[in-house]
Amino acid sequence: MPVAKDDLERMLKESFPDATVRIDDLAGDGDHYRAVIVSEAFRGKSRIQQHQMVYAALGGRMGGELHALALSTSAPAS
Amino acid sequence: MSDINQTIRTQVTSDPVVLYMKGTPVFPMCGFSAAVVQILSQTGVKFQTYNVLDDAELRQGLKEFSNWPTFPQLYVDGELVGGCDIVREMYQSGELAQLFEEKAVAKAS
User: How far from each other are the two terminal CA atoms of chain A, in whole angstroms?
Assistant: First the structure.
């Protein structure tokens, strides 16, 4: 069962309350999104750690219900 | 350590560059896997691939081993570098070539 864009945004905002989140639906099928997330939580973390934090926020849906999520994560410009 | 973890540890330390992908370099079964194969080919390094579609236990074991839920997964010198997004970002910024140089990764003959 694909993930709705609003659900995806809600899940991310719950885990990253300070974040600015932009989500693009790449295919219109609820399965292929791009997410650009800027949050203080990413400061000092490697790219891998940042992406792992996002996958954790999605509660195991990544790779299952959600096939593809192109990720761009960063901390706010200091 | 479970068998599958031991298998993975052996695989990622037997070759400097290891790519777990869906399909094979000649017949990639997923666009993201194909993209990383193309990037690795363009950098000219020698790399070993494993087709996770051939082995469900390997596929599941890798997700836990690396705490990374998707494929492809690129390992350099036994360490997870990332999936398609990260490898593409590193390639475009030159970080990937720098990493291969730092690890003295051999070029494909």
Answer: 39
pTM, 2 dp = 0.90
Q: In sequence order, what are the beta bridge partners of A11?
A: none
- Whether the predicted interface score ipTM is above 0.85: no
| Nearest residue in A to B68, CA atom | A52
- Write out the E strands in chain B: 17-21, 48-51, 73-76, 79-82
Tokens of B91: 């390639």
Chain-centre distance for alpha carbon B43: 14
CA dihedral B64, B67, B71, B76 (to 10 degrees): -110
Interface of B with A in 64-93 (CB under 8 A): 67-71, 80-83, 85-86, 89
In A1-78, the DSSP E strands lie at 20-25, 32-38, 68-74
User: Which tens digits make up the pLDDT trace of B39-88?
Assistant: 999 999 999 999 999 999 999 999 999 999 999 999 999 999 999 999 99
